[in-house]
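Subject: Sanity check before I submit

Could someone independently write out the C-alpha cells for this chain? I want to compare against mine line by line before I put it in a report. The sequence has 249 residues.
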Amino acid sequence: MFQLTVSVDDAKADWLYSVEDVMKNKLNSCSAVSAVSHVGRRIYCVFACEPSEKTSMLSALKEGLIEMYAVFIKFDYIKRNLFLELPQLRYEILLRTLVAFDRENERKMLNKIVRVEDGMSLDGYFNFRLGELKERWLEICKLTKSNGMYLYDDETYNELLRFLISAVNPKINKLTVHETDGKYSLTGALKSGELNLSACDGVQLMYYLIDLAPLELVIDGGITNVELFRRLVGIFDAKTSDARKNKTK
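---
Independent answer below. Compare away.
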C-alpha cells in the first residue's frame, strides 16, 4: 500500500473541504482512499492506494490541489484584499470574474510549482511558494480599486467584466439559456459531452456563465428580469434566438 499525508492549519480547514467533491471523484477513479485526523492545531489527511495506482493518485491529488489554490484560495485572497462598497451581488459577481481572469496561465504556473509529496503543508506552500501568484492577485486588486469609480455605473461595470471574461479561456463555444417560470436552464456541447444545467436562479446563472465563459451566448425567447438581461447582453454579448423583444416585468 502506498500512502502520503498532507496537512493544513485547522483555521484553514475549509481549504480541503472546498475541493472535497472534486478530490473524491478523482480518488475514486484510481481506487484510492483518504482519512482525516486532528493533531493539535493541524488537520492531517492521509491518502492511500495500491502501488500500481500510485502515479494516478498523485496526478489526481495534484489536480485537486491546483483547483484549490486557483479557485477557492484565490477567491478568498482577493476578497480579503479588495475593499469596495458595492451592492453585494455586484461585488460577488466581480469577485468570481476576477478569479476566472487569466486562470489558464495561473494553472500552468501552479502545475510547475505544486509537487505532491508526503508531509506536504498546504498553508506552507501558500505562504512560501506562491509569492509570484500572490503578487499578481494583489495587482489585480490594486487595478480594480483604482477603477472603482466606474463600477457603480451599470454600463462601465458590464464593460469591465466583459473585458476580463474575454481573457478567460472558454470551456464551451456556444451556450443557450432558456427561462421557465423565473428559473433558467443552460444547454450546450462540451468536448466531453452535452451540458444540461436546469432550474438555477439568476445569481447561479451568472456564476455558471463566468466559469464557462462561452464564446457565444444565445437567449432562447426572452428574459423577464430586465437587469439580468442587460448583464447578459453587456457582459456576454448575448443574442436572442428570434426577433421577439426581451419581455419585461
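---
OP: Matches mine. For the report I'm noting this point. DSSP finds ten helices and nine strands in the chain.
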